[in-house]
Amino acid sequence: MDLGPYLLFASLEGLVHAAVLSLIALGLSLVFGVMRIVNVAHGEFFMLGAILAWWISGFVFGSPAIGFLLALIIAPLIAGVIAMSSDWLILKHLKYDPEATIIATIGILYIIQQAVLMTFGPDARPVEQPFNYRLDLYWFGFSAYKFFVVFSAIILLFSVWLVMAKTKFGLILRATQLDSETAQAFGIPISTVYSLVFGVGAAIAAVAAVLIVPIQQAHYLMGGEPLLLAFIVVIIGGLGSLRGTVAAAVLIGMSDGIISVFFSPNLAKIIATLFVVIVLLIKPNGLFGSEKT
Amino acid sequence: MKRDLFIHLGAIALLFLLEILGIFSDYHQGNFARILVLTVYGIGYNVLFGYTGLLSLGHALFFSAGLYAAGLSIYHLDYNVGQALILAFCFSVLVSLVIGYLALRTVGVSFMIVTLMFSQIAYLCILYFGGITRGDEGIVIQQSSRVFLSLDLSDPTIRYYSALTVFSFCLVFNLWIARSSFGRVLIAIRENSDRALMLGYNVQLYKLLAVIISGTISGIAGASYGILFGYVGASFAAVPYSIFPLLWVLLGGAGTVLGPLIGAIFMFYLIDYASDVTDAYMIIVGIALLLVTLFARRGLLGELRYRFFPWIP
Amino acid sequence: MDTIEKNTLLYTENLSKNFQGIQAVKNVNFKINKNEIRALIGPNGAGKTTFVSLLCGRIKSTNGAVFFDGKDISNFPVYKRISGGIGYTFQITSIFLNLTVYENVALAIKEETGKTNSIDKEISNVLDKVGLLDRVNQRSGDLSYGHQRLLELAMGMAQRPKLLILDEPTQGLSDPEIDNFKFLIKSLSSSTTVLLIEHNMDVVMSIADKISVLHFGEIIAEGDKKTIQNDPIVQKAYLGD
Lengths: 293, 313, 241
Known about the structure:
- The complex is a heterotrimer of chains A (293), B (313) and C (241).
- In chain A, helix 2 runs parallel beside helix 4 and helix 5 (144-166) runs antiparallel to helix 8.
- The radius of gyration of chain A is 19 Å and the shape is globular.
- Chain A has helices at residues 3-35, 42-57, 64-89, 98-120, 144-166, 168-178, 180-185, 190-216, 224-237, 242-262, 265-282, and strands at residues 134-136, 141-143.
- Chain A has a two-stranded antiparallel sheet with strand order 1-2.
- Chain A has 11 helices and 2 strands.
- Helix content of chain B is 75%, strand content 3%.
- Chain B contains 13 helices and 4 strands.
- Chain B has a two-stranded antiparallel sheet. A two-stranded antiparallel ribbon of chain B has the order 2-3.
- In chain B, a hairpin with a 2-residue loop joins strand 2 (147-148) and strand 3 (151-152).
- Chains A and B meet through helix 4, helix 9 and helix 11 of A and helix 5, helix 10 and helix 12 of B.
């Protein structure tokens, strides 16, 4: 293959990375934006989504599409419920103190990860693609499923934007984000909102996992890498800025995908970090973050 | 105020006595040598987290900086132990200066994220340059290279005394910081950094110094670990090794000199026991983190200090 | 603008601060002389705290310059301004709650003072003045609110600043406590210059040498008690609020 088509191939791979990363980082950023806490266990909810997708698809016979659709509904629900209960059982009692919350979510990280290891074992688990169709792009064939992943991600991102901008629930979230005490004074049930947001954040990560798992396989240690990338993304994009998060996710996801194809995935992350270093030196609040006084 | 000195020197003396009287079995002697070196790491972590109030999630970076500087220079460049230690010290200072400068451009949760991120990248670098580091597999330092002042550091008894010596120096240094006016400023930054700034302290500089001291002690711990136990591997740079010192310090009591020792002894034996029972022994770490944040925020010594002995440094 | 005399400790030139389009402080030319007690008054939201924050550098100015003790300190970071001789006590009590009274004051004393003995002496001295000497080893978080305010003032005094900025020091205090404060501040003026933000007019009228009135970020009047009391613009600003 010539360089041109090869570059096209790498860019398409990068697009898939970017799509999935946008969703993961969006979940992280949403939680931070509304609750002002960082969920270090975020990657484990992603992993949970992937493992559950494999587990659910094991029950379904016939077309893999049915199992996939079921997983797409059930896995995020379970991940969301687990997240909500950990918020309710743990984070609420820490009063969302930033430091204590971060330490507690590290605890949650290990509990989920090791519980999955105990329950489902250490093996990597493949999931069949819901449909198997290759698009002929003249120089090479490219899985139509990967395009489906990209489109699903775009639709989901758009829906989140729609909910945030146009619905009453979105208004409640934005009010809570601006000033939780005033919001509470106006009768917004803050603790319910927090639980919901924490659950939705985790569910979005789980959706990303269900989408990617037919390409990637599920494994109990798979949560670390997306968490690292999501951290890189939110630092570049500005913590809590949804617009910045998505823009940075596309940038980092694309370059991660392209560099991974041409060189190595580890090098891609090393280069992404150098980029973070530059951002920290020039704009410590992130490229899209606003200066706080 | 001599009682605090008495207790800390007493703790050191006790650790010497346990060995002199031959109370340790071979198994516990080896464990305690490890625990003492790991406690040095915990002491380094505590300077930043316990005293200055900065939560780092990436100290494995500093530990492995010392570990690899010492290990690689012995393995590839035939450095002797003394040279390797000096190199590891200088490299740790340099790494903590650079990382501290960059990470301190952020505050609060961003600082925590950035430290974790840098540490993960250091881990990936170790894997990426596998030709030099031999990646996950790691390198073994031969017994013949582990000789210092004609002492064979691989001998269990000499190893224990060496670990205890490094530990004693770092503990006394920590005690000195805790009692000095420098340490008081660090504590002031932890308690109320805005006020510390408005009292005329260059808070940013103090924070950077705290990162450098903390990172360098962690690096010394890493170098000692590599030399005393003869193994240098990528697992020491991975996330769990950033979380362990946090947990030791939390359990023993953040901002107490002896806290990291208590936390490290407890967790070492707990994990040692759990790993016999299950492969998923890290679940113990997760549960411990949750319990300590929910029910024992001050840790053991911190609670004692709060309730009974306000003079504990 | 008045002439800058030898006696001037601090002055500003067209000092301004914009917050996202809102001008919180507008072209303020302000001057304070050595050993003066100056009160800065004005309705809520007039920009008083913002203005003094610009002086000590907690907030960066958008425009204009600050001169202190003969030097242009506009580009100095906070710690340099403070160690250069500006002391600041917070409107909302800001002390180290988990540290003892002793440690709080010790932190306020400059390093160079040297030996532990002389520091101890200095601490006792300051605490004696504010009447907290018998609580020297108490955790400051266990003090009553009034005592915490006194500790805050003691820390300001221990810094031995050339200019001590007090942001509403008597807020929330009882009348006897306020009388004690008035006495303390008055006694400071022999050794230092005081810039006092204050809402309590009784305090202002009884201790201030001179009064400046800030309104919507501008100084609308300045002078002694009589002048201010009879100024129609000031009356309008207060009544119109």
